[in-house]
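Its record is retained below.
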Amino acid sequence: MNSEEEFYDAVTGFDSDNSSGEFSEALHKADVEVHHGHRSGRHNGDEPLQENGIKKHRTSLPAPMFTRSDFSVWSILKKCIGLELSKITMPIAFNEPLSFLQRITEYMEHTYLINKACCHSDPLERMQAVAAFAVSAVASQWERTGKPFNPLLGETYELIREDLGFRFISEQVSHHPPISAFYSEGLNQDFVFHGSIYPKLKFWGKSVEAEPRGTITLELLNTGDKCILNFKPCGLFGKELHRIEGHIQDKNKKKLAVIYGKWTECLWCVDPSTYENYKKNEKKGGDQKKPKPSEEPENDEADDMPEIQETVQFIPGSKLLWRISTRPPNSSQMYNFTSFAVSLNELEKGMEEVLAPTDCRLRPDIRHMENGEIDLASKEKERLEEKQRAARKERAKDEMEWKTRWFYQGTNPYLGTPDWLYSGGYFDRNFFDCPDIY
């Protein structure tokens, strides 16, 4: 699957000293095509927990999140109307203990949907799974009010999940503008997922304008089918809040299926004629049928019933593509993290000897914040930012350009547009020339 569009990302937060509803147009349209392509952690530093031979990941953070009641976001933002928020320094209390590179990794939480797409021989079934994966990528951002830490130039993050069948590497390849590049591959060599993200945010007094830019590509098997998803633009209390509508069409632009739902709840697929008849009946004021357990297809893909009451109006005959996973019971005390997000910054014993020295898990300000040491986290954040500024001045003095380590600027093989491509070699673990950023 190849998405040339700007992947809508509710992940972007405000930050730092560093200096709409459609995937293909600035805020929210996804235009998705399929092309041919060919560590777990330990709990509290002890031996990894095992269950049926599979490593278990931690289920909570070392310390609960800080209260933000002593800080006023408005006192900061009111001075910044019309400005780009990425250049505004925010108190660390508004952060969450993850780097933006780790936030990007949350795209992989529902990798089972990619695996399902790889197994389908029917192009329509395959595209339905791909569409569900595209929606699931933003689901973890629901109710996440904290902002991730801006990555330092040269910062990296790796994640190997044998249980989910993928490995992932990302790098902060540019500072001005801030660009994050990533590459992931299936351990069974059945998919490649890569891209780069350049988020821009502006505050307009009553609203925040998000303009995510970049290219996201998922390579599976070849097909001419295409999926278009529209994330409905809406105010905080509008009836269109969180809604998604779209369709799958063949190369002749014939609609094969209609997709609807909410990125915070679930995604359904239904025959186009059934959908149109339902909508006509709805306009006439006909009785609308609410979902019943007997009518909902079984979903044994590790997606439990959500902790919220679903508000999506069910259309009889629909097929369930995806449902949001239940969050940990203590999620509200952990920055509203999902179970997957809780595990991202876990550092097992001895991992320092294996990771690249630029990995997010080794970043001290994030580690202090995760441990509940906010004063130390704030001091370390200032130190790292000053170190980054000093390194930038030194390069300018010596007329040296920054050289990325794991990605290079090239051309997307399917779109012909500029892109950041993986150089390869990261998992050979030759880290001798990695920069000293911490």
